[in-house]
Amino acid sequence: MHGPASPGWLLVALCGLTGAYCVLRMRSTVAEQRRSAGAEALMGFGMAAMAVPAAVFTPPAWTWPVYAGVFGVVGLRALWAALRDAHHAHHAVGALAMVYMAVSMTVAAAQGAAGQGHAHGGGSAGLPLVTGSFLLYFTGYVLVSGSRLLPVAGVAGGPVGAVGWGDRPELARVCRVSMGIAMVAMLMPM
Q1: Domain containing 45: what range?
Q2: How many domains does the chain have?
Q3: Which of 85, 92, 117, 139 has its Cβ near the most Cβ atoms within 10 Å?
Q4: What's the predicted TM-score (pTM) here?
């Protein structure tokens, strides 16, 4: 989050492209792909916006509470969906991590305005135990999900070449792993 320029732009590109692919997945003929694609697209675009280097654009102070509110709603929706399908629990954790980072940025901006610290990546506004818990979760998620990136059969048993881009489960997994990696990279400076 608002760290050095080069890694920041790489995170913006990774998360933005992941979000764009998730938008393509929203056009899938497979209901399960459509259900999770919207939340993943929002997460990708939100992470891309958070990763823009502060040297290029420093968002106004009201931006961070808005992020916290939006991802708080997304997290509540994911928790509700997790009652039916456990896969959505991961979305809830991701949204909670986004809320945590947005609240931390709100605190850092307030401390920076009061002359008590550095806003936008200069100081740590996060709580070490919470940050460490999120880091452990997302690192474990990346390692476990990454190990599952073996080619899979096409949807409904059809050949992989005949499946549309939105229906490729292995590409959806790659997107989830890349967003998990990006989440680890964004949590590290906290």
Answers
A1: 5-187
A2: 1
A3: 92
A4: 0.81
